[in-house]
Amino acid sequence: MDVIREIFGLLFGQDPELRQIIGVTLRMSTLSTLISALLGIPLGVIIGSTDFKAKRFINRVLHTLMGLPPVVAGLIVFLFLSRSGPLGTLKLLFTVTAMVIAQIVLITPIMTGLTANIVSVKAPLIHETAAGIGLRPFQRMLYIIYECRVQFISTVLTGFGRAIAEVGAVQMVGGNVQFKTRVMTTAIMMQTNMGHFEFAIALGVVLLGIAFLINSLVSRIQESAGLA
Amino acid sequence: MIGVRNVLVQAGGRVILDIPLLDFEEGKRYGLIGENGSGKTTLLRVLAGTLQPTHGEVSRQNPDGLGYMPQSPYAFSFSVLRNVEMALENAPDRREKAACALEAVGMQNFLTARGNKLSGGEAQRMAVARMIAKPRQLLLLDEPTSSTDIRGTDSIENTLLDYTRSTRCTLIFSTHSPAQALRLAEEVIFLDQGRILEKGSAREVLETPQTESARLFLQHWRI
Questions:
Q1: How many Å lie between the alpha carbon of A40 and the closest alpha carbon of chain B?
Q2: Domains of chain B (ranges, CATH numbers)
């Protein structure tokens, strides 16, 4: 009972560390998701809606990158940002920016791949129908994007879900520095290792709450668009 | 007005369409018949320009006046009225024209319904309305009544007859129904394995077929 009281105390109290961890997590996940969406969705639309010679090869690479292990992404970014790396002079290692970069490396292929899959299903029919009524290629592309809009939102939220739950890459390039780069997942791992289960559970509850909110949002959007 | 010269379409080493010469006369109604995989859809797609032939050429006098309706036309998720308005671009009275076209195919009660919520037959009627919402010189319709019921089929056929007569538009449509070809087409082209086996007046081809393939195909209809 004391444990539950402590968890609620942490959740609704004024614990500065917990608030800071949640703040950094949301800032990092939102920023990395937005940048990944800006890169991945247009790329996915192009790959999914056009035919070109290297398409099969690109799809194969994309599907491989969709399953990129977070620690590998973390390692690549770490090597680039470390003092002796090509971007070492920027001194970004163990900052939130480094964590955002690692997440972009992880999430962009996922968003590109999901978008390309969605578009490749709908695009041929939309393209054929729109061409048949005399719409120009640019207009056809806009209609393809419009018709896939709800799925794109789901893609973005999938990316956000991946970002907020990620631990390996952010641990490597962020370093889990208290009041600086500590996020919910790295904090849960650390607190569990230290035996501070109340703090870990409180963070877990917040993570689950955010996941529930994301899912509710996706359902709501799909319902309002008449696609559910 | 539209025709093909030495058109060959191949896919996976297989010949899908092989037509040395085919011309369509302006203002006439043509029906393409044949079994599944005979090349009807491929020919329509080549004529519409949505499929590039492996070699050969397609001559079109006025590509802007062309309307093409695929076998499963896409119904956009906005209103039925807006789905039809799409075909009218910036015409000032596009709303009235779209509503009028929908009325012609018996869809006047569906103006505000979402396109993606329509049944297959309703979506097909809406797609026909999209085709006839403005005057065109050439209509290419791939099985325009494949999902409609008898009333819907009747409504579409009458609408197409009225439209082609009033606009002098050339109509080329594919169908699995020889009866529909007889009702709607002046000329019938019988395709088999991508080649034209018979071409002539609808009555001539359908009632006195000259080739064995056409006879076999039409024999089921007569029964």
A1: 24
A2: 2-222 (3.40.50.300)
